[in-house]
Amino acid sequence: MSKQMNRRFSHGKEKGAARGDDRNLVLVDEDFQDADFEDRVWLYWQRHGRKTIAGATALFVAIIAAIVWVESGKMRTASLQAEYASAKTPEAKLAFARANEGHPIAGTAYFAAGREFSEAGKYAEAADAFGNAGRVFADLEDFSAMRDRATVSEAVVRARAGTEGAEENAFALLKKLAGTPGADPLCRGQAMYELAAAALAAGNLAEARLWLDEMDRSLDPSNFWQMRKSALISAEPRLAFAEEPVAAPAKNAAETPSADAPGVPAEKS
Predict the structure, then answer these.
(1) How far apart are CA 161 and CA 80, in angstroms?
(2) 102: enclosing H helix or E strand
(3) What is the DSSP string of 64-75?
(4) How many CB atoms are located within 10 Å of the residue 100 CB?
(5) C-beta of residue 258 within 8 angstroms of C-beta of residue 252
(6) Region Disordered: which residues (predicted)?
(7) Are 211 and 267 found together in one domain?
(8) Residue 83 and residue 92 in contact, taking contact as beta carbons nearer than 8 Å
């Protein structure tokens, strides 16, 4: 310890120690203003050494915990990806998805199973798988586009299922998606197109024309389904000419399609 430091402590004790208080006090006054760097570091360590060690230890533990968390997440993701790749059948994909509910890869597995069921002509099973995919994606942030894709896929295959009430449920899903401004533009466009095509297939030109007009009002001209709409009109030129005014399409998701709803044949007199 330098002479200056020793002199400083003795002066501080005489100057700053209260009568009857025998605690060791370390004070900084004008005698210490010219202390060298080594003395200043020593004094700082005497005052704050324990706090510095505790803070450094806490920071080190936090960094290690963060590294472990990130690496464990990577390992789990890699493990899930390998397990998903080993699911070769739609049934295996369903089992994998059920075992990993809440993870995005579960939604992907449900969606893939739905697609494979659809390709095999198992439309009821495909609809259920797509419905589960939409449910998983709906509970996750930043997966709204996948949720909407699952919804429109469910509606399309459900309409083909042929089971009781399947067609009505399909139209309800499509109408809900078509009437949601914040939905993915491509999925919303497909929903409107499917409703127009179903109405045209049923011979209901007014409903088909109504949905095509809704596409013009709601979608960007560059939307892929706008191009498909043009092809639909080319196949049925009468769609380009309005015969009489019609009301705007119902957008209430809970509404059951009536006899004049899109895709439902109008009653013959």
Answers:
(1) 32
(2) none
(3) HHHHHHHHHHHH
(4) 18
(5) no
(6) 246-269
(7) yes
(8) no
Mapped onto helix, strand or coil, the DSSP state of residue 205 is: helix
Give the position of tokens 């704050």.
48
Neighbouring CB atoms inside 10 A of 40's CB total: 13
- Tell me if 263 sits within 8 A of 249, measured CB to CB: no
Q: pTM here?
A: 0.62
Tell me the Ramachandran region of residue 162: left when phi exceeds 0, alpha when psi lies from -120 to 50, beta otherwise: left
SS3 labels along 139-183: CCCCCHHHHHHHHHHHHHHHHHHCCCCHHHHHHHHHHHHHCCCCC
* Distance of alpha carbon 127 from alpha carbon 146, whole angstroms: 15
Q: Kindly state whether residue 177 falls inside one of the protein's structural domains.
A: no
Q: How far apart are CA 261 and CA 248, in angstroms?
A: 11
Question: How many domains is the chain partitioned into structurally?
Answer: 2
Domain contains 105: yes
Structure-token pair, residue 118: 């659809």
Crossing angle (nearest 10°) for helices 185-201 and 205-218: 170
Range of the domain at 127: 88-163
